[in-house]
Specification:
By secondary structure, the protein is mainly alpha-helical. It has six helices and two strands, in the order ααααααββ. A two-stranded antiparallel sheet has the order 1-2. Helix 3 crosses helix 4.
């Protein structure tokens, strides 16, 4: 699914959405079936009645819902167009030898706790060291605003943070 722009958050959201209509969907489903064709084939093979029901519902939103033995022609045409469009993208990728959805990071800047640049920060993360410290006095005196009780008006319940 990565080639379609799915990240781990979208995979989780899609899996949750699928579970509303398809019982017992595995959390790893979208890693096992990595293209939309593979996913559709899996769902049709293992959940054929639910797929038919969903396609019928999508086509008859303003009409009484009834079961159909196969998706209506209009839905089939729309699905075929989507399928053909994805096939076109896959053919273009095959011709060029590179995925069409690549993203390049060409620069990064920022301020990082206990590091003066991204390389130092990366080394800090790789080493497993913590960048969390008590709030420095030069920032503010946390003792004036600290209370162990969360949610107390005009107070905070932490004295820790990331500072550079």
């Amino acid at each position: 699914m990565e080639r379609y722009g799915f990240d781990s958050i979208l995979v989780t959201q899609l899996t949750s959405a699928l579970r509303k209509n398809f019982a017992d969907i595995s959390s790893t489903l979208l890693f096992e079936y990595q293209t939309l064709d593979e996913l559709a084939d899996y769902l049709i093979k293992n959940y054929s009645q639910q797929v038919k029901d969903l396609l019928t519902i999508a086509e008859t939103v303003d009409r009484p819902i009834h079961k159909a033995s196969s998706p209506p022609r209009k839905v089939k045409r729309r699905l075929r167009r989507q399928h053909d469009s994805l096939r076109h993208v896959e053919r273009q990728e095959a011709k060029s030898g590179t995925p069409l959805f690549d993203v390049a990071i060409i620069g990064i800047a920022g301020r990082y706790p206990k590091a003066s640049n991204i390389d130092e920060y990366w080394q800090l993360l790789r080493s497993g060291k913590q960048a969390i410290t008590k709030i420095p006095k030069e920032r503010w005196d946390w003792r004036k605003y600290y209370d162990k009780e969360p949610g107390k008006d005009d107070y905070m319940y932490t004295k820790w943070g990331w500072f550079y």
